[in-house]
Write a structure and sequence with these properties.
Keywords: Membrane, Transmembrane, Transmembrane helix. The chain is an all-alpha fold. It is built from one helix and no strands.
Length: about 40
Amino acid sequence: MNVKIVIIVTVITILVSLQYTLNKILVELREIKRILMSKYR
């Protein structure tokens, strides 16, 4: 029972951190795209 709880908490933590990381990457990509667009105009 205890092991199950630990595994579930670990999986949830990994998912949340992945989501956060993906969001940061997306924001960075948008910034880069915006900068590139403004340079080429």
